[in-house]
Amino acid sequence: MRLSRGTRLQLQLQKYVFILLLLTAAGLLAWLSNQHSMQFDWSANRRNTLSQSSIELLRALKHPVNVNVYAQDDDAVHTAVDEIMKRYQRFKSDFNYRLLNPDIDIVSAQEDAISAYGQYVISYNGRKETVTSLSENAISGALLRLSHSGEKKLVFLSGHGERSPQGDNNISYTKFAGALAQKGISSESLNLLQSAIPDDTGVLVIAAPDHELGPGELENIDNYIERGGNLFWLMDPGSMQGMDELAHRLGIRFLDGIVVDDNTHLRETLRIQHPAMLPVLDYFPHAITRNLQYNTLFPISRGIETIDDNWQATAIAQSLPQSWSETAQLGGEIAFEADKGDVKGPLKIVVALERVLTAAADNQAEKPAKASQRIVIAGDSDFLANSYIGAGANLQLGLNIINWLSGDDDLIAVEPKNAPDTKLQLDDTETLIIGAGFFLVLPAVLFATGLIIWFKRRKR
């Protein structure tokens, strides 16, 4: 069939219009892909996308989030970091992150106090926190803690030679208070001779007084405990400074003497010069110890025993099995002597107490606002002092204790997303059937189909 000149021009025009429309559609799709993103997660349990709690958290954040990721120059690590960080960027446009090598970006690593590869420093609204796990649980938990607008107050008891959060000497808690301030927890000192414990106190800290407390001061502390207040009590070996009744009220007893460990091999390995310098290598399961990955060091400690069941008591840290509580003066050779009052280890040196609050416990006629009261007792105050807080995980342990006492362990609970039925288990017969199907039956069917089609075409 011959086409006229007009028909050929019309077909040519239709072809050019089609090409133009196709290019326009492709351009529009490219523009839309840059303006809007869409992702579908068809994996089991939607484990490759953020949970709804994390998404709601990101939408509530009003300020930019900056993350410094410190890692070696490794393509696999960078790919893993990019994958999880982009999940957050999809729901918050001002979520920014940088991949840094601590061996090259030395200034940034020093400013963020980086001590190992794989640490992530998350900054938000003037605060920052370091996490060591590239997981949604760790990142979202840190973001929620950093986003808190209301500061929790930490009140340090003063007037009896306690450790001060404002001091400038080696025995003060200045560095500890500074680390807490970065997490939105302010610290202040309180002399009970001048004023009572404020009602907005988040945690009361009694850090190793070396002078006796007066009856009125002890009554003030008792009233605070009776109202359901949270307490962090650190007590060095020696005199109880009139607080024996407080210990009895809390259901604990401080052992006499100093806990020592004469493990020569361990002391040489850790370069510890004195048997009273106690390393803690393992921790008991608890919210406080959940993310502790290094040993802690307790310079001079006393043991703690629990004596009643009024509180739910959980040991946090204890000395090693070959340790004991030495009641004699330290000097020269030391040896365990049970007949002189020495107590064989392992001995608890940090204990967490918790109880459910009731109207009676809170001294109120109605149900209290919070569900439980929390107290942590430590047999050593030096581990958080300026001179020792940098040893091992001492700082992290102190921060975890304050977070737990403040209730921050319940801020977020992002459940891990595990894919069900990720393993396919086949017996020998099933494996043989599948193999025969792929290597014999399927090729035979394709060959037979091709042969039938060829035979039919030949007969035409």
Topology readout:
Blueprint: H1 5-35, H2 52-60, E1 65-70, H3 75-89, E2 95-100, H4 106-111, E3 119-124, E4 127-131, H5 136-146, E5 152-158, H6 174-181, E6 185-191, E7 201-207, H7 215-226, E8 231-234, H8 244-249, E9 252-254, E10 258-260, H9 264-270, E11 278-280, E12 296-298, E13 304-306, E14 312-318, E15 324-326, E16 343-344, E17 348-356, E18 372-378, H10 394-406, H11 428-459
Parallel strand pairs: 1-2, 5-6, 5-7, 7-8, 8-18
Antiparallel strand pairs: 1-3, 3-4, 9-13, 10-15, 11-12, 14-17, 15-16, 17-18
The CATH topology of the largest domain turns out to be Rossmann fold
Low-confidence stretches: 360-368, 410-416
Number of domains: 2
Structure class: alpha/beta
Oligomer kind: single chain
Overall mean pLDDT: 84
Structure at a glance:
By secondary structure, this protein is α/β, with parallel strands linked by helices. Helices cover 33% and strands 20% of the residues.
Q: What features would you describe in this structure?
A:
This protein is of the alpha/beta class and 460 residues long. It is 33% helix and 20% strand. The chain contains 11 helices and 18 strands. It has helices at residues 5-35, 52-60, 75-89, 106-111, 136-146, 174-181, 215-226, 244-249, 264-270, 394-406, 428-459, and strands spanning 65-70, 95-100, 119-124, 127-131, 152-158, 185-191, 201-207, 231-234, 252-254, 258-260, 278-280, 296-298, 304-306, 312-318, 324-326, 343-344, 348-356, 372-378. The chain has a 7-stranded mixed β-sheet, covered by helices on one side.
